[in-house]
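name: query_chain
kind: protein
chains: 1
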Amino acid sequence: MDTAAMQEAFLKQQNELCDRIEQVDRFDLNSVKLVAGVDLAYWNQGDEEYAVCCIVVIDAETHAVVEKQHCSGKIEVPYMPGFLAFLELPLILKTAELLSASPDIIVFDGNGYLHPRHMGIATHASFYLHKPTVGIAKTYFRVDHQTDYTEPENEAGSCTDIVIGGEVYGRALRTHRDVKPIFISVGNYVTLDTACALALRLTDRESHIPIPTRLADLETHIQREQARSAAGQA
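structure:
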């Protein structure tokens, strides 16, 4: 399938899935026991691109790590703006299959509803993982190439909605004073208010990034270097 045909098929799938997004809480935040963080890291070997996906599950109350899993492989889908989920999803699903723990909610280092068709990786993956999901991005994704966000007040917990065409796509949230905001968007089966409350609850003094995605990000760097080393020795 050439790139144009692939993009057309991906667009059709995104539009179909978009109608099934539920911005409602399918869970009680106070009953959440386990939260998983998901991130990927990439590297090149010759002319081929590879990635590793890492999932870290933590105890929502103690923040202790319950489980770590990872999976790496060659990227088979070319990168196309707006369709990153199709590139990342295969590795995410393979890694999720390795989990012994069953997280109550899964947070992604990326976006969900904050996407041109509301189908960032956090949303797209929810239909395959069958779990509530949240997108937590470190950098702002300008959906329409022009709408910016308003900086939240310089206080922990301050936030501003990201509104595009009269619709709320996500929220800029400052987790600590004197730090850059992070960008929260609904994945699926959760409200934006609950997603932000969860992010604040899972952020400690070590970083402005919530623990699950921060640990997943750190783990991707470790696993990527190990995969690179193994490939160099092969």
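note: The helical segments are 3-18, 84-97, 121-129, 192-201, 211-233.
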